[in-house]
């Protein structure tokens, strides 16, 4: 397994969660994308937030009395998360307003979570996007790594999954739709 496997999974997870939370691909998986700098900043801030929160909450520390260097780093990480999330939320608002001016209206079931929340309240949409990022990246990374480990240890299940995917997507570049799944 490559040394950066976990980091790659974390990048993929952040990209996936951000697509749901911010209605936008970040471009974190491609270094030459236009959003790579902001995406990298967001990734680093989320990583710092995760480790610093764990450290500050579960080890003895003076941060509750005096602002320690780790506490200050945590606050900077949270500020970075808010800045990047707010920027992407504002971009989504501008995109939706432009679409509205052009008369583009999507069906309710085609609207993103962010789009639905923006119609209710911009602050709620921004907070919800941040919350999805804060809560979704670490948990989804752990889940994904766990599933991949289970598949690696059970080749028969891996083969069964492969056959199911080939049945649903006979063409490598075919479209994936929820109605093609056989759940049950």
Mean pLDDT: 86
- Provide a count of the helices: 6
Oligomer description: single chain
Number of self-contained structural domains = 1
Strand content: under 5%
N/C terminus separation? 34 Å
The strand count comes to 0
Percent helix: 55-70%
Principal-axis shape: flat
- The parts where pLDDT drops under 50 for at least 5 residues are none
As a whole number of angstroms, the C-alpha radius of gyration is: 20 Å
Class by SSE composition:
mainly alpha
The H/E string reads HHHHHH
Q: How would you characterize the largest beta sheet?
A: none
GO molecular function, one term: iron ion binding
Organism: Bactrocera latifrons (Malaysian fruit fly)
Cofactor: heme
Protein name: Putative cytochrome P450 12a4, mitochondrial
How do the helices and strands line up, and which of them pair or pack?
Elements: H1 5-22, H2 36-58, H3 69-101, H4 113-120, H5 122-153, H6 155-168
Summary keywords:
single chain, 184 residues, 70% helix, flat
Summarize the structure.
With 184 residues, the chain is an all-alpha fold. The protein is 70% helix and 0% strand.
Q: How would you describe what is shown here?
A:
InterPro entries: CYP11_CYP27_families, Cyt_P450, Cyt_P450_sf. This is Putative cytochrome P450 12a4, mitochondrial. GO terms for molecular function: heme binding; iron ion binding; monooxygenase activity; oxidoreductase activity, acting on paired donors, with incorporation or reduction of molecular oxygen. Belongs to the cytochrome P450 family. The structure is a single chain. This protein is an all-alpha fold and 184 residues long. It has one domain. It has helices at 5-22, 36-58, 69-101, 113-120, 122-153, 155-168. It is flat and about 60 Å long. The mean pLDDT is 86.
């Amino acid at each position: 397994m490559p040394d950066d496997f976990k980091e790659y999974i974390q990048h993929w997870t952040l990209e996936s969660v951000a697509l749901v939370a911010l209605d936008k691909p970040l471009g974190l998986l491609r270094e030459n994308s236009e959003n790579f700098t902001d995406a990298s900043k967001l990734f680093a801030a989320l990583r710092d937030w995760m480790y610093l929160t764990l450290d500050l909450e579960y080890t003895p520390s003076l941060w509750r009395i005096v602002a320690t260097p780790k506490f200050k780093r945590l606050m900077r990480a949270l500020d970075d998360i808010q800045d990047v999330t707010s920027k992407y939320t504002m971009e989504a608002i501008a995109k939706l307003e432009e679409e509205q001016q052009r008369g583009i209206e999507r069906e309710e079931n085609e609207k993103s979570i962010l789009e639905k929340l923006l119609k209710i309240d911009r602050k709620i949409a921004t907070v919800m996007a941040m919350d999805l990022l804060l809560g979704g990246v670490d948990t989804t990374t752990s889940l994904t790594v766990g599933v991949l480990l289970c598949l690696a240890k059970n080749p028969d299940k891996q083969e069964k999954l492969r056959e199911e995917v080939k049945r649903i997507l006979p063409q490598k570049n075919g479209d994936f739709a929820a109605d093609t799944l056989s759940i049950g």
